[in-house]
Design brief:
Structural class of chain A: alpha/beta
Shape of chain B: globular
Helix content of chain B: 25-40%
Strand order of the largest sheet of chain A: 10-12-11-14-15-16
Strand content of chain A: 15-25%
Number of helices of chain A: 14
Structural class of chain B: alpha/beta
Largest sheet of chain A: 6 strands, mixed
CATH superfamily of the largest domain in chain A: Thiamin diphosphate (ThDP)-binding fold, Pyr/PP domains
Number of strands of chain B: 11
Distance between the termini of chain A: 56 Å
CATH topology of the largest domain in chain A: Rossmann fold
Radius of gyration of chain B: 21 Å
CATH superfamily of the largest domain in chain B: Pyruvate-ferredoxin oxidoreductase, PFOR, domain III
Strand content of chain B: 15-25%
CATH architecture of the largest domain in chain A: 3-Layer(aba) Sandwich
Number of strands of chain A: 16
Order of helices and strands of chain B: EHEEEEHEHHHHHEEHEEHEH
Largest interface: A-B, 27 and 16 residues
Oligomer: heterodimer
Chain lengths: ~400, ~300
């Protein structure tokens, strides 16, 4: 097989290296640290010409990243989980400056209770920040998405920063073959960054993110960000075509798997979508007409592509690897909103919550999802949110509670 | 419902006046609502405040676009388009202006429509308090008089609102006394609730994408703050008495806006186009060589860009 064995983290670092970034502010956090370690090594050895700076927190790191991008530098940085939340207010500033850097987030579930394994409450907390979001399923896709992200972000029709997301452990520490694009081809794909509205020149000072009062100018600028984000759908499509021409791999805003004659469709994101595809194959082998829709681009929200993929299906199950307490699954809400105005919408829309804190999504759980979704489709009435958690897992939990409470309680 | 709009400069007390009016109305059993709007809280910057008084629950909020009474604490705001003093005023609107000019003089200038009444509150404050900056109690009581509120409720409202600002009881009493001189002195004009006109649906602009050079909140013009003559924010100006100046440079150091420069013989020169009239230099001068002088009607504050 072509390529080299590497982790998702190393693939992310290679993405930044091949993109020829100028500046990398860094702060370590599990499970992201390997990315900045690799970049630090390359900057130290001279393999990369970027300036690498360790910062005192993710808040400072994102501030430095945004400020550097505002001078016209190509900037890369990476974080995870609590780090992303700590940097959160700066994300909104950077998108408002229209500073198109790329941030890799390695998903890790949020405290409390504290854990290290992935779910998507961290990255989805940034869904309204004005950063675009691309969620990757494989280590190869991590690397390729970073290159695509720079081209989309730096397009004058967009000029917004991008988050590329990969799952902690299941991609970040997982090795699989990754093909490294040739640097001269990357140079062809990714032109130098020359923004007209950013830059640093003492003889031509400018102010970014200025105060605007009264609501009218604020509305104008926020509307512009929305229009810019929506433009990214077309720009992504052009970028995907250019990428395919040069590198032979194709990525669209959504990926359909065995959708052609599928009655019921499972919607997923990120690394566990691979498991979802295996479950689809197993169900297909039993003669069940099921398929999978993987959402790759979360912002801008590819509503048309989602409607095209889900129109006229019997039932749709959205498997959210996140939980909005008191509401349910975050992506379920957005899928439901996209389908409501569709005359040929599915007869049943079902919500499942699974894989929280990196909990495994077992074959049995996928079977339960397909069964319940099919029944809902026959009944013509949606279900959920169904919290995926098995009886066997609960027995394990009960034992832990006994230990935590003292053996006598 | 009666809708009262106050216009003043930061530090004059327009917001507190709107609260005195709101509290007094509330004490008389009306439903009341008051709210201010201002940018960064800066002395001298234009401020607006709104008080609504009704017998039924009030379902409006925020800006008053069609006021029944407008109270102008500083006449230099009238020609400033950013202050929007004239917005929604027609010949039926009651307007009070803190000014030495008479309504006839304003009408002759043609600068203000409406049922005008004026009184020089700043001069009264200077005579009575020795300083004319904060005139919230005077503004509030004048507004209360014009909308027909009682003296006892206004008196109690002053106590509540000024005590809320941690003013001493003696200061509050003095404010009450001076305010009720104004209550008697202001010439009443008719304040009446005007029935709202039917409003056509807004013509919505469909936003289109513009390149980031235009569509980003960004200022690339160099040194354009000098174009904004914040000298218009002053109600009082610092004036140098050269004989008293000992050349200590303290005014230069304390000026928060950097509008004081020093001559070769250590005397301050004030850039009146941009001095906001905060009076910090007057306060800090150890030899009282800087004194506050009231801006004259029609003076620099009225002409500032």
């Amino acid at each position: 097989m072509a390529g080299e064995m590497m982790t998702g983290n190393l693939a992310a670092a290679w993405g930044a290296r091949l993109a020829g970034v100028d500046y990398i502010p860094a702060f370590p956090i599990t499970p992201q640290t390997e990315i900045v370690e690799a970049l630090a090594t390359w900057c130290e050895s001279g393999a990369m010409a970027a300036r690498f700076v360790t910062m005192d927190s993710e808040h400072s790191m994102m501030t430095a990243a945004g400020a550097a991008a505002a001078t016209g530098a190509r900037v890369f940085t990476a974080t995870s989980s609590q780090g992303l939340l700590y940097a959160m207010e700066v994300l909104y500033s950077i998108s408002g400056w229209r500073a198109p850097l790329v941030l890799v987030n390695v998903s890790r579930a949020l405290a409390a209770p504290i854990t290290l394994e992935p779910d998507h409450n961290d990255v989805l907390a940034a869904r309204d920040s004005g950063f675009l979001q691309i969620h990757a399923e494989t280590c190869q896709e991590v690397l390729d998405s970073i290159l695509m992200a720079y081209r989309i972000a730096e397009d004058a029709r967009v000029m917004l920063p991008v988050i590329v997301n990969l799952d902690g452990f299941y991609l970040s520490f997982t090795r699989e073959p990754v093909i490294l694009p040739a640097p001269e081809q990357v140079a062809q794909f990714l032109p130098p960054f020359r923004p007209a509205h950013l830059g640093f020149k003492a003889s031509a000072p400018h102010a970014l993110g200025v105060a605007v009062l009264g609501g009218t100018p604020y509305s104008y600028f926020r509307h512009q960000m929305h229009l810019a984000a929506m433009n990214a759908l077309d720009v992504h499509s052009e970028t995907a075509a250019a990428f395919e021409r040069l590198f032979g791999r194709r990525y669209d805003v959504v990926e359909g798997y065995r959708l052609d004659d599928a009655e019921d469709v499972l919607v997923m994101t990120n690394a566990f979508a691979s498991r979802g595809k295996v479950a689809v194959d197993a169900a297909r082998a039993e003669g069940r007409r099921v398929g999978l829709l993987r959402l790759r681009m979360i912002r801008p929200w590819p509503a048309d592509a989602i409607r095209d993929a889900l129109r006229s299906r019997r039932a749709v199950a959205v498997l959210d690897q996140n939980l909005a307490p008191g509401q349910g699954g975050i992506l379920f809400q957005e899928i439901a909103a996209s389908l409501y105005g569709e005359p040929l919408r599915p007869r049943a829309l079902c919500s499942f919550i699974g894989g929280l804190g990196g909990k495994n999504l077992s074959e049995g759980e996928f079977r339960a999802i397909f069964d319940q979704t099919a029944e809902a489709g026959v009944r013509g009435k949606g279900i959920g949110p169904i919290l995926l958690y098995t009886e066997a897992e609960h027995r394990e939990m009960t034992q832990l509670q006994a230990l935590a409470g003292g053996l006598n309680s | 419902m009666i809708a009262v709009r106050f216009h003043g400069r930061g530090g004059q007390g327009a917001k507190t006046a709107s609260r005195i009016l709101g509290t007094a109305a509330f004490l008389e059993g009306f439903v009341a609502q008051d709210s201010p709007i201002y940018g960064a809280e800066r002395r001298g910057a234009p401020v607006a405040a709104y008080t609504r008084i009704a017998r039924e629950p009030i379902r409006e909020r925020g800006l008053i676009v069609h006021p029944d009474l407008v109270v102008v604490a500083d006449a230099s705001l009238i020609p400033d388009p950013a202050a929007r003093v004239l917005e929604g005023i027609d010949e039926r609107t009651a307007v009070f202006v803190n000014s030495p000019l008479t309504p006839e003089q304003f009408h002759a200038q043609g600068s203000l429509p409406g049922r005008l009444t004026t009184l020089d509150l700043t001069d009264i404050a200077l005579q009575q308090f020795g300083k004319g900056g904060a005139i919230s109690a005077l503004l509030g009581v004048v507004a209360g008089r014009l909308v027909g509120l009682r003296q006892d409720s206004l008196r109690e409202a002053i106590v509540r609102e000024l005590a809320d600002l941690s003013l001493a009881a003696s200061v509050i009493e003095r404010n009450q006394a001076v305010a009720f001189n104004c209550y008697d002195a202001v010439r009443p004009v008719l304040v009446e609730a005007v029935a709202p006109q039917p409003i056509p649906p807004a013509q919505l602009q469909r936003p289109t994408y513009e390149p980031p050079t235009r569509g980003t909140a960004r200022i690339s013009a160099a040194a354009n703050s000098v174009l904004r003559e914040t000298g218009g924010w002053r109600t009082f100006r610092p004036v140098l008495v050269p004989d008293k100046c000992n050349g200590c440079w303290l005014c230069f150091v304390y000026c928060p806006d950097g509008v004081i420069s020093m001559t070769k013989d250590d005397k301050p020169v004030i850039d009146y186009d941009h001095c906001k009239g905060c009076q910090i230099c007057v306060h800090e001068c150890p030899t009282d060589a800087l004194v506050a002088e009231r801006e004259k009607e029609g003076g620099v504050a009225w002409r500032a860009k």
